[in-house]
Amino acid sequence: MNVLIVYAHPEPRSLNGELKNFAVQRLKAAGHTVRVSDLYSMRWKAPIDASDSLNGDAERRFDASQDSRRAFASGLQSPDISAEQDKLRWADALILQFPLWWFSMPAILKGWVDRVYAYGFAYGVGEHSDARWGDRYGEGSMVGKRAMLVVTTGGWDSHYGPRGINGPMDDLLFPIHHGILYYPGFDVLPPFVVHRTSRIDEVRFTSICEDLGQRLDDLWRTEPIAYRKQNAGDYEIPALTLKPDVAPGQVGFAAHVVWPET
Ligand code: FAD
Q1: Are 71 and 55 in contact (CB under 8 A)?
Q2: Which helix (H) or strand (E) holds 187?
Q3: Rounded Cα distance, 112 and 83, in Å
């Protein structure tokens, strides 16, 4: 299988750097082909702007969506964008690896998503009409591919628990899991999260690598998070709210997951 790791940490000798190196070795040892987009070493340009389209018209008002649509459709995207899109087409699995910074991904990785997820590639895909709101949330360009986050946090496990002060990790990661990965069609696996990173010694590092190694070995066996598909009957069209008889009384992020019967 082909695995793309998109990695965002400025220091190669960091914990994230070590875990990324470990993941590459583990996946290769299992026979997979691995490519890494190391965003800092690539000096990835994070801001989306008019220079992303090679056919940009300096006189025309820059429109992030429409310029992206035109450049994607005409093959005139900036080469760094199309190279990352080719890697996504090639990949059977995508791993996004990053330290949690201000409860989200580092800006350089968000800029990778902003620019690589072009109109026509990751969004604006499929029929858009009163009866159908495109191929997304379970359908789209990335269908059949898997995705997983590898995230490190300074905060403790309990800080991110169901009643933890930071909010539950599942909720904090929902915009990435559901909004960035499930939206264009990835099957999203539960994340691999390392908490309390300031308390890591050789013993804990070894144990973290064992756990990560197991998750990588199970990449094609792990059950994805059971998000509801947009076009499978759970949502009213075009309001895109859950139908009254689906998860009645439930609101918030958890309502968009099919939970096992208890
Ligand atoms: P490093 O600092 O490189 O390493 C962490 C520890 O691992 C060190 O003690 C190091 O010695 C040890 N280590 C590394 N490699 C090995 C090895 N091979 N063997 C043994 N030990 C090793 N945290 C939150 O919880 N929520 C936030 O919202 C948040 N926001 C942040 C915003 C910013 C801008 C910053 C800078 C930090 C923030 N943090 C936050 C903390 C951040 O998530 C952690 O600092 C980060 O996850 C640690 O990852 P790292 O790769 O930088 O670790």
Answers
A1: yes
A2: strand 187-188
A3: 12
If you take atom 32 of ligand 1, which residue's CA is the nearest one? 101
Residues having CB within 6 Å of any atom of ligand 1: 9, 14-16, 18, 99-103, 152-155, 197-198, 200-202, 205
Which domains are delineated in the chain?
A: 2-225 (3.40.50.360)
Residue to mutate, 39, 96, 98, 101, ligand 1, most ligand atoms under 8 Å from C-beta:
101
User: For the segment 100-143, what is each residue's pLDDT rounded down to a tens digit?
Assistant: 999 999 999 999 999 999 999 999 999 988 888 999 999 999 99
The predicted pLDDT at position 262 comes to: 60
Q: Going by C-beta distance under 8 Å and a sequence separation of 6 or more, which residues neighbour residue 261? A: none
Q: Ligand 1 atom closest to Cα of 195?
A: 25
Q: Measured over all CA atoms, what is the biggest interatomic distance in the chain, rounded to whole angstroms?
A: 60
| Terminal alpha carbon distance of the chain | 35
Q: pTM here?
A: 0.97
Phi-psi category of 211—alpha, beta or left, where left has phi over 0 and alpha has psi -120 to 50?
Answer: alpha
Q: What spacing in Å lies between the alpha carbon of 250 and ligand 1's midpoint? A: 35
Residue 224 CB contacts under 8 Å (≥ 6 apart), including other chains: 146, 187, 188, 189
Q: Of ligand 1's atoms, which has the minimum distance to the CA of residue 194?
A: 47
Q: How far is the CA of 149 from the centre of ligand 1 (A)?
A: 16
Q: Contact at 8 Å (CB) between 148 and 181?
A: no
104 CA distance to ligand 1 centroid (A)? 14
